[in-house]
Amino acid sequence: MKIVGSMEVTNGYEHWKEVFMSHEPARKEAGMETVYTGMEAQNPNIVHVCLEVESLEAIQEFMSDPENAKVIVESGVKVETQVMIPIIE
Question: Is-above-0.85 flag for pTM?
Answer without folding.
Answer: yes
